Amino acid sequence: MSVPPRRLDAPHPDTVFDAGWLALRRPADTAARADPLNRLAHDWLCARAGRPLRLIDLGSGSGANPHYLAPRLPGPQHWQLVDHDPALLALAQGSCGALYDSDGRPVGVDILLRALNTLAEDDFAGIDLVSASALIDLVDEGWLIRFADACADAGCAVLITLSVDGHWAIDDGEVADPDDAFVRTAFNAHQQRNKGPGAGSAASDGVGRNAGPALGARAAPRLATLLEAQGFRVTLADSPWRLHAADAGQRALAAALLDGWRTAAAEQCPHAAARIDAWHARRQLALALESTRIEVGHFDLYAEPGVEI
C-alpha cells in the first residue's frame, strides 16, 4: 500500500513533539535555566509597573514556559500563548489558568492558534516581554530577522531559553567513546536541515514554513547579533542539561536523547547506520551505570532595548 503524500501545510516530522516528551524534559529544563536572566526580566517589568503587563509566549506547547516564568515575574500579568497545536494549547490554557505572579495575583491567559511563519512586524505591539523556550533552533535566518525587527518595533524585552548550542558529552567514567564526536557532528548537521513546512521546536508542534535551513546551534548567537544591531542590550548565558543516570527520570530523558541522536545521525549519514547502531548500543549500556552523566549544552538569551520606550 502506498503512503499518502504529506499535506503541504502539515508540520515537518522533525518538528512534531507530543505532550509526553514535553513532560519528560520539563524537570531538566527547569533545573537548567539561567536565573540571572530571569532577574533581568523581572527588573525590566518592574520598571514598567503601574499597568497590566502583557507577555507573549511563542511555541507554548503545553505551557511549561509561562508555568516557570509567571511566579518569578511581577504583575499583574496577562499572557498570550501561541502555538499551532490545538490539543497542546488547550492543555496549556487549562494549566496556566491557575498561575499567580510573584506578588500573588492571578495571571490572565488567552491562547492563539497560529503557525508562526506569518510573523509580522506589528505582532508584538503593546507587548512588554516576548518569551519562547526551545524554539529558535529550528527556524531559519529569515524568520529570525523578522523576529528581531518585530521586537525592535515593539520596544519589548526578549527572553529566549534553552536553545541548543551544539555540544553534548557523555561521561561514564571511562575513556570517551570514539564515535561520540561522529554522532554529534552528524546530529548537528541534521539539526540544520531545511525543516520545510511547519518547522517547529521541542516546545511546539510548529512555526510554519521555512525558506531555508534551520539555524540549529547557531540560532541564539545569531539572534544576539541581530538584536544588538537593533540597539538591544543582550545577555547570553549557558543553560546546560546535567543528567545523572542514578535518577530514574533523568535516565529516561537520557535514553530518549540517545534514541533521537541515533535516528537523526542515521538519517544524516545512512552509509554509517551500522556504526551508529553500534554506538547506540554501547551508550545504552553506559546508562545502566549509576555514575554515568550526560551534559547537553543550551543557551538562554535575554535582551532589552537600549533606550526605554
Give a brief outline of the structure.
By secondary structure, the protein is of the alpha/beta class. 38% of the residues lie in helices and 20% in strands.
Provide a descriptive summary of the structure in words.
This protein is of the alpha/beta class. It has a domain at 13-167 and 197-242 and 297-305: Rossmann fold (3-Layer(aba) Sandwich), CATH 3.40.50. 38% of the residues lie in helices and 20% in strands. The chain is built from nine helices and eight strands. The protein has helices at residues 19-32, 35-46, 64-69, 86-96, 141-154, 180-191, 219-229, 248-268, 273-287; strands at residues 53-58, 77-83, 108-113, 129-133, 157-171, 232-238, 241-244, 293-305. Strands 1, 2, 3, 4, 5, 6, 7 and 8 form an eight-stranded mixed beta sheet that branches. β2, α4 (86-96) and β3 form a beta-alpha-beta unit. α5 (141-154) runs parallel beside α7 (219-229). The chain is globular. It starts with 18 loop residues before the first helix and ends with a strand. The model is unreliable at 1-9 and 197-210 (pLDDT under 50).
Q: Over the alpha carbons, how many angstroms does the gyration radius reach?
A: 19 Å
In CATH, the topology of one domain is named Rossmann fold
CATH class of one domain: Alpha Beta
Report how far the terminal alpha carbons are from each other: 60 Å
Number of DSSP strands?
Answer: 8
CATH superfamily of one domain: Vaccinia Virus protein VP39
Q: Kindly estimate the percentage of residues that lie in beta strands according to DSSP.
A: 15-25%
On the 0 to 100 scale, the average pLDDT is 87
| CATH hierarchy: architecture of one domain | 3-Layer(aba) Sandwich
Reported for the largest beta sheet, the result is: 8 strands, mixed
Secondary-structure element string: HHEHEHEEHEHHEEHHE
> What is the number of helices?
9
Secondary-structure content class = alpha/beta
